[in-house]
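Message: Study each token:
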Amino acid sequence: MKKLNIAIVCDGVTSTTAGSFISTLRFSEILRKRGHKVIFITSKNSGEKNISYHNKIKVYRFFSVLLPKTEGQLYISFPTISQIKNVLIKEKIDIVHIMIPTPSAVLAVKATKSLGINIVAHSHTQPENLFLHLPKFLPLEKINDIFYKYMVWIYKNADIIICPSKFAERALTKRNPEIKTIVISNGVDVSKFKRIDAMPFLKKFKIPVDYKKLVFVGRLHPEKRVDTLIKAMTYILKEYKKAHAIIVGPGHMQNSLEKLSKRLGVEKSVTFCGIVSDEELKMAYSSGDIFVLPSLAELEGMAVLESMSCRNPILVANSKESASVDFVDGNGFLFKPKNPKDLAKKALILLKDEKLRKSMAQKSFENSRNYDINKSIDKLERVYYSLKHGRKISKQ
């Protein structure tokens, strides 16, 4: 079958550390390796060229402004409709794939429709990721609902909307039952995320080798509620002295979380690693005995999948706004959101029972095989070709 020319519209895709951008890069790289031509239409950070390459993918960048509370990473672009049209025509684009609902997505929809090109949209954004830091006196539920309606307003113009989970699909379709959706997991590269020797990582960050380790991976932002894990350590250490929390990822809350650990007297039992390399990330998962996700909001939870593939039992906050609760299936426990005592209680069960911990680790590994990223790309390709050739899209 003839290979496709695909334009992916996604601000911040080459410079921002977050699940949606990492997923976009991984999907794009596999599509490129399968022979498709992929280009990015994205934002321009200071000093970057208008046209460049990222991992052999051509990148078109446009005038942008920095979004606050993103650690200086995420710029939002404002291309004109004519600029986008020129790129699509020049590159002979077959499919336009929009990743996040920024102004460039709105403009890309208009440009794409005027050329009669098929549009795929991706539900990578959750309002809770954006607004949980707002003052509590504001009507957050109403604000979240308005944002979902804004997303539907943009995405209803797409031929199909890809959702990473059933949870994400429900969140959109309840606002507009008429939109066309399909669930495709972000997936996990099971050939890369596997248990490896973690000793270089432990030595670098001076983490005690013979301690049991609770690992968190993600942005240090309000919705991730990493404070719940830090507070839980005060209860865990009372009953299990040789426990250590490893926190991997960047975020504007790191300073306040470090201060919290000192105030609680657990700073020697908590290590903040910040941004790590891809190899160190695999070592971080591999060093773990338990993976902990205290997050209140997840459209899927790529870090959970990665940890499962690296044979970790999982502890996940049982939040009504988190799709990650569905990953708990004989391989860990749910705990009450924002409840460090309950997190500690569930962690101690696993820490004290090696047989249970190992059996749940194996179950995590087995479950992760259902989310192989190559299966997700197979499904995505079928969507692209169905649109290109005017066929009905199968949800299977």
User: Anything to note?
Assistant: The domain at 5-187+372-388 is CATH 3.40.50.2000 (Rossmann fold). Residues 218 and 362 are 23 Å apart (CA to CA).
